[in-house]
Amino acid sequence: MANIIQDVAGVDFMTEKDIVIELLLTSKNTVNRYAAVLSEATSPMVRDVLKKHLNQNIDLQGQIVSYAMAQGYYRPYNPSEQINDDLKKADTSLDLEAWKLQAGEEFFGSKRDTPIVRS
User: Fold this and answer.
1) Is 71 within a domain?
2) Which residue, 87, 68, 54, is CA-closest to 25?
3) Of the candidates 4, 64, 78, which has an alpha carbon nearest to the alpha carbon of residue 30?
């Protein structure tokens, strides 16, 4: 799984922190999507199924948040540290800009001329 994410992200490695944060963002998006669909569902049976899935996803998101906080990957109660961490991630994303393929190029594996430096 990490190899797929690494190829999509265009990096040679992902840390556990990267994967946990990605899971956290994905679970948050999933909860939001289920809530939106649930609010538009008209069938009582469909609403019951969606409520079940929404509650399962809320529980899963809670577990991911707890794990991320325990590992120090997510700091909702310390905004200044969280903002600094987010700024580092933004800088890393900007560094990836140079690795984008040129028009007409195809990706056939590792084409990495510029290393990513993470602190």
Assistant:
1) yes
2) 68
3) 64
Note whether residue 23 is domain-resident: yes
What is the crossing angle of helices 16-40 and 44-71, to 10°?
A: 160
Residue 108 tokens read as 């056939």
Task: Report yes or no on whether pTM surpasses 0.85.
Answer: no
At residue 93's C-alpha, the angle toward residues 12 and 108, to 5°, is: 40
pLDDT tens track for 63-96: 999 999 999 888 888 888 878 877 887 776 666 5
Query: Whose CA is closest to 95, among 114, 113, 112, 82?
Result: 114
For range 16-38, the mean pLDDT: 91
- Average pLDDT over the chain reads 77
**In angstroms, how far apart are the furthest CA atoms of the chain?**
56
Is 112 within the bounds of a domain? no
Which range of residues forms the domain containing residue 59? 15-83
